[in-house]
Amino acid sequence: MHAFRVIRRSLGAGSLALLLGGCGATHLSTSGETAIAQSAISQTPRAPSVRSTSPSVERYTPPGWPEPLTARVRLPDTPNAGLRPAALIVHGGGWRGRSPADMEKIARQLAGQGYVTFNVEYRFAPRYRFPAQLHDLQQAMRWIHDNAERFGVDTDRIVGVGYSSGAHLVSLLALASQTGPLAEPYGGEHTRLRAAAVGGLPSDLLKFDDGELVINLFGGTRDEVFDAYVQASPIRQITPQAPPFFLFHGNRDRLVPVDHARDFYQALAAQDTPAELYLQHGRGHIAAFLLRGGAIEAAIAFLNREVNRDGAGSSAYPSG
To answer: Tens of pLDDT along 199-209?
Structure first.
């Protein structure tokens, strides 16, 4: 019991739920019971997963945008299901590389739960400085809204999913794109997310030394462009309007130390925003993504619960 008290004190407010599975994880929830424990995920035999179509690649940026950027769109095979939830999916890569291919397995899993998935590209640093990357996601959300009827999307049930730098951008989209400085000129109500699931989140950029990745992103050190570091730190953008968040993180992450996730979870818990924190034991930044397994299942269960909270949707699961 002493260990439980120590963990609870160190990780902040909210009820504690420990899941010690084969992967080794500590799972906390502000609501007292995790979504995965509530079986908020489609699985045989109770609610079989649906199939999804092969992804189509479509440009989402408007004419004249600095680069033509695309989304891999995957439709769940749910005929006659009415409007469906959607997921904006954003890859990692230190804001400077990688591609949506990294997130395709997650996109398939979400489509298998009935989500229309939009797995997107964005512009890279150092050629494009922040907030260019956030502007890209804001345009992606505008495009999803404009094409909602074509894809059968319920625009009130769009979630964001990302890892590492993708988690950072999704979090800022969720927290700071509706109003305020980061909402100008491409944000607004269309960027609102129902919930977010993020892994390896760099939540406070002021915690980093002046390393190459963040200097490339902002074009200067913390001392040189301090306000940009503050503005771009998701934990410093949390307001009472924050949507529910699921966070997963390796507890041996040295690239983005685990306190980024713990502090972010604490801040959400302190204002009673629904949140879950899934700490993967013995995993660093890359392993937490490559061996994510149970973390993604728990994340999808969380998203399923949130998109159907308060009577949204037509059934207990997005896929019907």
So the answer is: 999 999 999 98
